[in-house]
Amino acid sequence: MSELFATTGTIAAIATAVVPQQGSVGIVRVSGSQAMAIAQTLFHTPGRQIWETHRILYGYIRHPQTQQLVDESLLLMMKAPRSYTREDVVEFHCHGGIMAVQQVLQLCLEQGARLAQPGEFTLRAFLNGRLDLTQAESIADLVGARSPQAAQTALAGLQGKLAHPIRQLRANCLDILAEIEARIDFEEDLPPLHDKAIISEIEKIAAEITRLLATKDKGELLRTGLKVAIVGRPNVGKSSLLNAWSQSDRAIVTDLPGTTRDVVESQLVVGGIPVQVLDTAGIRETADQVEKIGVERSQRTASAADLVLLTIDASDGWTQGDQEIYAQVQHRPLILVINKIDLVETEFIKSLKYPNTIHQVVATAAAQNQGIDTLETAILEIVKFGKVQAADMDLAINQRQAAALIQAKISLERVQTTIAEQLPLDFWTIDLRGAIQVLGEITGDEVTESVLDRIFSRFCIGK
User: Fold this and answer.
1) What DSSP letter does each residue of 295-361 carry, written as one string?
2) d(Cα 201, Cα 190) in Å, to the nearest integer?
3) CB-based contact 416:199 (threshold 8 Å)
4) For the chain, how many helices (H) and strands (E)?
5) How far is residue 162's CA from residue 444's CA, in Å, rounded to a whole number?
6) What crossing angle do the helices spanning 163-185 and 133-143 adopt, rounded to 10°?
7) Average pLDDT over residues 372-384
8) What is the pTM of this model?
9) Beta-ladder partners of 274
10) Integer-rounded Cα radius of gyration of the chain
């Protein structure tokens, strides 16, 4: 392995967030052959407590030389192989905050452990056969989940719901390869291969790969979320829309145009999708230098957003200012939000004219908290997510897995071409082996050092 993951020796790290004056418990995790010895050196138990695996002990952590008390804590011991890493693991459950866990970690390092690299505990779990690569990546997704649906999808991956179909595809390819190689080695003793049967099997594998690839965009949406920018002229109700939607007072709302001078952000979950809502400054020509900066930021935010909510004032109708803003954002996925409908008659709203290139229109009265549900439904329709049930999201691949599946599909297409051109059987096996290899890289049955470095370096330290 590379220097990034020198997976020998005993490692230690703080396994919980370290935040001043927050968090009641902090955990220091130690894994490796010296973990138990370090625990016995540092941890002192009152009374007659039994030191055995999978038992929690109560006691004190003391400096081994000075016997100075460092913390009152609990100790959890897990002997190999019944642990996360399949090595001896101990966890010191200390008081939260900064000082206790940092002092305990320092004592562990002084006793011979080394500081763990990002993701090294999970890497050891993989190398020791506790997890495959799809499960390891699902752990990272679970830690970073920003919605209940994202967490459920990560848990499904952790339970092997992605690894199973990938391994089945690889097994099917290996069966085809065995059939071909048997004909190469024992051509005179076996009946000839049926080209059409082989092609049919390859087509079935390719179809399943296509099905798995279809989950990539959904998976990315759950992992990274949707960035939504609320744009429009000053005083059309953008900030009121944000506040009503987020059920908070994140944005200042007044009758004065130009109140919002910078981008205001709120995090929401819509239909299981994490949504980052950005309320931008009203876009207009202005001589005010501060407001001008805000307008420029609004324009950049709209350009980078996944979805734009172009908000207009129902009582003003579609104005020249709205047209100018629309010209800047029309290349983005867009919903027209007609706000302040409570101030006008229904017939007037129906008679409003706007570009016929706008296909999604929602009417709201943000100050009265009206139309938010309709807006969320429109957003789900935009991302083609509205009819997807939770069960459909049990399987969602990431970019690395998608790249490998695409390469496997290309290799299988080459095998079909080779068969169609009636080339010798030896040529059939070349690209078939390539498909088998990249499918193995997804689960870790075949994996390179660079792939491991790329995956586990993205983990937090302590996981």
Assistant:
1) HHHHHHHHHH-SEEEEEEETTT-S-HHHHHHHHHHTTS-EEEEEE-GGGS-HHHHHT----TT---E
2) 20
3) yes
4) 16, 13
5) 13
6) 160
7) 84
8) 0.75
9) 269
10) 29
